[in-house]
Inverse folding.
């Protein structure tokens, strides 16, 4: 079974809320403009869902035409608060894929009839008729019905005219706000890292979207905001821990696409950490005793 299918099934099982009756949902593409030009060569398209109240998870695959190339993908302010598979573009298959869920179902999160799932920024490669379409056998909806059963989706594709000379409207995202606070969960029974302790996390950012994550482990607590970026190792969730004894403080730093950060601390399990503090206390006592002797000798 494909890994994405496994992850979606797991998240559906975790996110299921009160069983309910699904409503037919539509996935569609909303372009910045219906005509894309080679003038400044860039424009954006939103991936959106309509009438999706009966769902609680989606798995999506978009086929990208040769006329266009994705250069940036943002899940900022996405309806999918839990990204199971982060948006990924494979230039060989020309598929843009992602998967996500809403704990408790879309009903709890939808404030309007439609909602944005993703924003894709494209670069124009050549003129012609550009058809962006959903790959039906790789795009699935999952109901919020207590079982996570598959929901048939209506898929509306998009055809754009790519022409010479037209300037597309620039879309610049201003973002000085850090990512939202998030939780870190630990497990030694994750299907992607069986038998090893891993940190599981996902952050959201309402401005430019999440760009990357870093992890830092230490036996002693630090002020999270003062830890330099150089101390963090780039990771993705689930992140395998170096300290498999779970005796270290774990810091996860989320970076958005404008460089803003949010750092979350997870304290170690009780046990070995007490011996670390005991060692520090003994060292402090020894140094204090030596300092006292030194002052007496030199007085």
């Amino acid at each position: 079974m494909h890994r994405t299918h496994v992850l979606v099934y797991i998240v559906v099982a975790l996110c299921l809320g009160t069983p309910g009756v699904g409503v037919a949902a539509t996935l569609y593409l909303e372009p910045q403009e219906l005509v894309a030009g080679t003038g400044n060569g860039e424009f954006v398209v939103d991936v959106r869902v309509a009438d999706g109240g009966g769902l609680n998870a989606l798995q999506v695959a978009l086929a990208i035409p040769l006329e266009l190339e994705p250069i940036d993908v943002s899940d900022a302010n996405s309806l999918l608060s839990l990204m199971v598979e982060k948006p990924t573009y494979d230039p060989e298959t020309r598929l843009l894929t992602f998967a996500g869920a809403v704990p408790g179902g879309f009903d709890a999160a939808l404030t309007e009839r439609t909602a944005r799932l993703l924003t894709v920024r494209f670069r124009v490669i050549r003129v012609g008729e550009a058809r962006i379409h959903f790959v039906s056998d790789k795009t699935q909806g999952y109901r919020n019905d207590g079982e996570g059963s598959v929901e048939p989706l209506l898929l509306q594709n998009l055809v754009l005219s790519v022409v010479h000379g037209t300037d597309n409207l620039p879309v610049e995202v201003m973002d000085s706000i850090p990512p939202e606070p998030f939780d870190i969960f630990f497990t030694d029974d994750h299907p992607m890292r069986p038998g090893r302790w891993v940190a599981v996390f996902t952050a959201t950012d309402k401005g430019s979207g999440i760009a990357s994550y870093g992890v830092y482990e230490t036996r002693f607590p630090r002020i999270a905001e003062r830890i330099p970026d150089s101390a963090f190792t780039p990771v993705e969730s689930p992140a395998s821990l170096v300290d498999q004894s779970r005796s270290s403080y774990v810091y996860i730093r989320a970076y958005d696409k404008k460089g803003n950060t949010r750092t979350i601390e997870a304290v170690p399990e009780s046990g070995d950490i007490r011996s670390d503090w005991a060692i520090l206390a003994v060292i402090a006592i020894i140094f204090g005793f030596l300092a006292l002797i030194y002052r007496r000798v030199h007085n």
